[in-house]
Amino acid sequence: MFDTAGTDDDGSAGTGRRLIVEADGGSRGNPGHAGYGALVRDPETGRILVEKAAYIGKASNNVAEYTGLVAGLELAREIDPRASVHVKMDSKLVVEQMSGRWKIKHADMRVLAEKARKVLAPRRVRYEWIPRERNKDADRLSNEAMDAGMAGVDWAPRNASAADRRRDPESAATGGTAAPGTTSVTGAAPAAEQGQRPTGSLHHVEVWTADLPGAQASLGWLLERLGFPQRNAWGGGASYGSDTFYLVLESGPDLAPGGHERRRPGVNHLAFRAGSRADVDLLARRASSHGWTLLFADRHPFAGGAGHYAAYLENAEGFEVELVAD
């Protein structure tokens, strides 16, 4: 366990605050195009306080993961340099080496590990290995960074108004701003978090599917990239989002035969704000590897009309999603 109340080597006492750092890195080719993602989460509420991602050129997967760790620790230090930090990563190598149980043989790894130890007092940092499926936010960020770098553009955070861009009331109260290349999820707390329930706002949307695994692989994947993390799952379904708003994918014996047809009376499609035009383009390209096909390709990206920049996607079951640029 780490110490939340003791003093560091310089004699300064800790604040007692705890923060969670989640980090990941990837390399397409290993070595190849590489990037990292890192975020800081409030352990009490689960809110993401700040996140960062960057393309680092050609590097190995291990270098990308260590670079993500350093970035995450630096983000935590910016929030509270005396906090106790719980690092969660799906890299067994980094976790075991930084915990002192495995030797660091590679010179590049030693340099990065030493850099990480200098960010925060080691006695205030604890490391835990987690499965990849529990590290989806950091994985998303690292993939966004690699996509951006390979497209020749800088990684840019999504619009903070997207669902599950959860806000940090403390930062808002102090007028805090994010460092360049980071997203600080700040601003006034939503009405629901202030004890008010805004009348008329959507509570949740339920989508019934005849192919739950396929819907999770395509629509579930897309929802997580749009800021709707999986909340829970059960035998016949899964939900994505937050307490403020969530979407449900569900299947079961009550499902009527016939399949989905978006042109029949009823809901035609779901539309999401997806960030900048570059964000929309990147996400649409990635979606093609996850069961999505671009609709109205001859009129893309203005199929919705002049000045309306969007990608219209359809999965194998016929569900349509619109990704709208800000």
Describe this structure in words.
The protein has 326 residues and is α/β, with parallel strands linked by helices. The protein folds into 2 domains: 18-184, Ribonuclease H-like superfamily/Ribonuclease H (Nucleotidyltransferase, domain 5); 202-324, 2,3-Dihydroxybiphenyl 1,2-Dioxygenase, domain 1 (Roll), CATH 3.10.180. It has helices at 61-79, 92-98, 107-119, 136-150, 169-174, 212-225, 277-287; strands at 18-28, 32-41, 48-59, 84-89, 125-129, 182-184, 204-208, 230-234, 237-241, 246-250, 270-273, 292-294, 310-315, 320-324. The chain has a 6-stranded mixed sheet with strand order 5-4-1-2-3-6, with helices on both faces. Strands 7-10-9-8 form a 4-stranded mixed sheet, with helices on one face. Strand 1 and strand 2 form a beta hairpin. Mean pLDDT is 85; it is low at 159-177 and 186-195.
Which CATH first-tier class of the largest domain would you pick? Answer: Alpha Beta
Question: Could you give the count of β-strands?
Answer: 14
Q: H/E element string?
A: EEEHEHHEHHEEHEEEEHEEE
Structural class: alpha/beta
Architecture per CATH nomenclature, i.e. the level-2 architecture of the largest domain: 2-Layer Sandwich
Instruction: Let me know the largest β-sheet.
Output: 6 strands, mixed
Range of strand content: 25-35%
On the 0 to 100 scale, the average pLDDT is: 85
Strand order of the largest sheet: 5-4-1-2-3-6
Question: Which fold does the CATH topology of the largest domain refer to?
Answer: Nucleotidyltransferase, domain 5
Globally, the shape reads globular
Give the N-to-C terminal Cα separation: 45 Å
Rounded radius of gyration (Å): 21 Å
CATH superfamily of the largest domain: Ribonuclease H-like superfamily/Ribonuclease H
Could you list the spans in which at least 5 consecutive residues all have pLDDT below 50? 159-177, 186-195
Provide the domain count.
Answer: 2
Approximate helicity band: 25-40%
